Amino acid sequence: MAERQGNGRKNDPQRTQEDILAVATEEFSTHGLAGARVDAIAERTRTSKRMIYYYFGSKEGLYLAVLERSYRRIRTLEADLELANLPPEMALRTLIETTFDHDESNPDFVRLVSIENIHHAAHMLRSEAIRELNVSVIQMIEGIIARGLADGTFRRKADPIDVHMLISAFCFFRVSNRYTFGTIFRRDLSEKATIERHRSMIADAVISYLKSPEGGPAST
Amino acid sequence: MAERQGNGRKNDPQRTQEDILAVATEEFSTHGLAGARVDAIAERTRTSKRMIYYYFGSKEGLYLAVLERSYRRIRTLEADLELANLPPEMALRTLIETTFDHDESNPDFVRLVSIENIHHAAHMLRSEAIRELNVSVIQMIEGIIARGLADGTFRRKADPIDVHMLISAFCFFRVSNRYTFGTIFRRDLSEKATIERHRSMIADAVISYLKSPEGGPAST
DNA sequence: CTTGACATTCGAACTAGTTAGTACATTTTA
DNA sequence: TAAAATGTACTAACTAGTTCGAATGTCAAG
Asked: Tens-digit pLDDT profile for chain A (220 aa)?
């Protein structure tokens, strides 16, 4: 009979999970772990709350899945860069701008990381997948610094993790603290001109730091 | 008679409020706005939940009070600095190290700001007190840059707000992202040697940036 | 020094709304 | 026919905020 209103349901577990994750990412990143509402996520999904628990077990399970998915997405970006052929300064600038652009265009990711920090990275600790990340960036930076020192472009023997932190900090902060910073200084950080200025600023700052001699720029 | 168990109650509204705020600061900064529990705060207080609502009206009211109190505390720090007498480079270094030390020793404040950003700075917007802050830092930086350009110490005409952001970003990030960064790179950011290294690193980076010529260090 | 008005404090039970998670039935797929 | 996938309605627990009924401290005016 035409009793079944022929909604033509097709089982598509992958799509269902992906759909849930996409909506959950948005919900968690705008409300935090405790602030997010499972019902709110369910509503905006093609599917139901039932399926959230079917696939992810609990609210925390869902959160962890969201977190892992976000991290997995970056991984690919950096790997694609072909920096070994570029001269050190250019290679570094390219890497920095990639990081900058990534954070700028992935505010959800940035917010999730902020949230995870509020929870002392407790969930991240439980995830193998996430921890083994970002090792490649460090190796890249290490290589660039070594080449730069060898050919005289750079003069400072900096720790690659420290340098990565200097870069990350600025790129991340621009996005993570956009609202408080913007409110206090009445400045819209998403304006195109501002973005461009900051993009070159962080690159210039890191590069001039590496060019300046070991004892600090004071001794120049 | 000894009916009243002679608990010797003293009315001390200021102390009561301060007590509540101190406990609430801790609760909010470790659990976020939604994650914090009013009952949990009440329990760890000398007083009761009743008094929390008596003085602060609601959970949000309490949160806002906590936020304002945290901001008010920094205000004093920077004002005390006497930078006008120092040569530009030294003045800047002192300012940077003050910011660094502040964030390092006020993780609660840093976390609250992170939380506030997750909420799009919605509460901060409603607080006059907070917005009129931090103007002084910008003026200080502006003055230092101007003096440095005049006497030839610096060569780059940088925007003082941008420079403040470069400084803040690093100092803030070290604390705000301590857990995720530490987890991924297996590095303890609260080690004394690391702190010292980072302290001079951010100062060196900013100073060498200002010393490098306008066109970017590429044109050197 | 008294008095009265008002602010502060106590405490504990209570409620109304919310929310994470589940039971049970049904449909699809293979 | 069995396992995977889905839908609906429910529940058990939690939690912000309230209510009631006091007792006690403070301070200015008389």
From this structure: 333 333 455 677 888 999 999 999 999 999 999 999 999 999 999 999 999 999 999 999 999 999 999 988 877 777 678 888 899 999 999 999 999 999 999 999 999 999 999 999 999 988 877 777 677 889 999 999 999 999 999 999 999 999 999 999 999 999 999 999 999 999 999 999 999 999 999 999 999 999 999 876 654 4
What is each CA distance from B178 to A53, A111, B81, in whole angstroms? 32, 15, 28
> Are A209 and B209 in contact (CB < 8 Å)?
yes
- Eight-class DSSP state of A191: S
CB B183 within 8 A of CB A125: yes
- Which nucleotides of chain D have an atom under 7 angstroms from any protein CB? 4-9, 15-20, 23-26
A120: closest chain B residue by CA:
B179
Rounded CA gap, B53 and B47, in Å? 11
Question: What residue ranges define each of the domains in chain A, with the CATH number in brackets?
Answer: 12-57 (1.10.10.60), 70-219 (1.10.357.10)
Chain A nearest C-alpha distance from B45 (Å): 23
> Which of B117, B180, B206 is facing A205, going by the closest CB pair?
B206
User: CA of A11 and C1' of D12: distance in angstroms?
Assistant: 32
Query: Which ranges of chain B would DSSP assign to H, the alpha helix?
Result: 13-35, 38-43, 49-56, 59-79, 88-105, 107-118, 122-125, 128-131, 135-150, 160-176, 178-185, 192-211
Query: Mean per-residue pLDDT for B23-34?
Result: 95
State which H helix or E strand residue A6 sits in.
Answer: none
Contact A179, A190 (CB under 8 A): no
Chain B closest-CA separation from residue A47 CA (Å): 26
The whole-number Å distance from A35's CA to D14's C1' is 15
Residues B187-213 pLDDT 10s: 999 999 999 999 999 999 999 999 999
Contact B182 A121 (CB under 8 A): yes
3-state DSSP of A50-96? HHHHHHHCCHHHHHHHHHHHHHHHHHHHHHCCCCCCCCHHHHHHHHH
Distances (CA, A) of A47 to A30, A52, A132: 21, 8, 33
Closest CA to A169 of A91, A103, A108: A103
- Whether residues A180 and B113 touch (CB distance < 8 A) is answered with yes
Better-scored residue on pLDDT, B126 or A58: A58
| Amino acid at the residue A203 | A
